[in-house]
Amino acid sequence: MDATNQANELVIVEGNPPPAGIVVQTVRTLDGTRLRCAVSPSQLDATRGTVILLQGRNEAIEKYFETISDLNRRGYIVVTFDWRGQGGSGRLLRGSNLGHVRHVGQYVGDLECVIQDIVLPDCRGPYAILAHSMGALVALRASARLTNIVERMVLCAPLIAFKRRRMGTRAIHRLAKAARLVGLGRMAVPMRFVPARDMTVANNVLTSDPRRFARNRDLVAAAPQLFLGKPTVSWLAAVTGAMIRLDDSDEIARLAVPTLMICAGGDAVVGTASAERLAWRMRSGSSLTIPLARHELLQEADHYREPLLEAFEAFTATALPLPENAGTKPEAPDDLSIDAADLAIVDDESAVQDIEGLAVQDGRG
């Protein structure tokens, strides 16, 4: 493991300060892929454990500075990393900005590498996972291997199925797999794609918060090398294959790690109903939906985002308790305090505008 503490490895833009004490590290996977990782310490006198923060597709460490800082102030150490092929990690297609992977097992290998090389030797337990979108899919695929390591998993807007697709997941998978078999795996998926520069708060499907939307767009403009364009056919075949395996296999019913899925009621990217059904099949799983919130819950407006953070803290409290000598814990604003009535599971199809095909925009997980 090569460790550094160089701030210039992180891209800093106005309005997005890095977490205090964050350290950038590099690890290499078994197949030699370089992963950019970051460790950020608890800001309390004592730590309650470590959160492994798993990003979505087309994201980077910098996009989660605010969330990392929020978790640090609550007493958690945070470890996060850029998946292979995106962010500051090694690209899989030379000279291309397409999002590519051969199979989801490669992402599982990335997670296992970070756990073995950074989390277990360097970060105090107990451990919990907080994952967004594609990161949640990877966490579920890796769940059997995480049983004796991770105490809790909280999965935000999990990528269990695409939203309102013209074809079903199985049909998409068959087409993508066939295209890959005839040598088209590195081709971009023919789909609608909106560059970040062309998005507005009104027309984007990721967040309704003007400040966080502008911050993320500024980040893409300042560091385009961290972000991706369309996914490849191989990526699409890989993730749809993982979705089908979760749907068909009984392994999800045997998952022993207590898991909470937090869905976005206004999600136009992933299928909320599919996540709720999957949670129902899990022996130790449950789900809740935050009404009207868009896909990127951790980038959403405070009245959506704060309940998520409160739910995460409450769900992990028994496994990652706040030590008595930890110091003062920040409190959520009074009007944002979590209440069970605020987290009702809703059928929000009428609240979501349809989108064409499998639109994967800049910065979408």
CATH topology of the domain at 2-94 and 104-161 and 252-351: Rossmann fold
Q: How confident is the prediction overall: mean pLDDT?
A: 87
- The Cα radius of gyration reads 19 Å
What amount of the residues lies in strands? 5-15%
Overview of the structural elements:
Pfam families: Hydrolase_4 (PF12146). Residues 47-302 form the Serine aminopeptidase S33 domain. This protein is an alpha/beta fold and 365 residues long. The chain has a domain at 2-94 and 104-161 and 252-351: Alpha/Beta hydrolase fold, catalytic domain (Rossmann fold, 3-Layer(aba) Sandwich). 30% of the residues lie in helices and 14% in strands. The protein has nine helices and nine strands. The chain has helices at 65-73, 104-122, 134-141, 143-146, 169-184, 210-222, 233-248, 272-281, 302-316; strands at 2-3, 23-28, 34-40, 49-54, 76-81, 127-132, 150-156, 259-264, 285-290. It has a nine-stranded mixed β-sheet, sandwiched between helices. Helix 1 (65-73) links the parallel strand 4 and strand 5 (76-81). Helix 3 (134-141) crosses helix 7. The longest helix is centred in the first third of the chain and has 19 residues, at 104-122. The radius of gyration is 19 Å and the shape is globular. The two termini are 27 Å apart. Mean pLDDT is 87; it is low at 1-8 and 332-364.
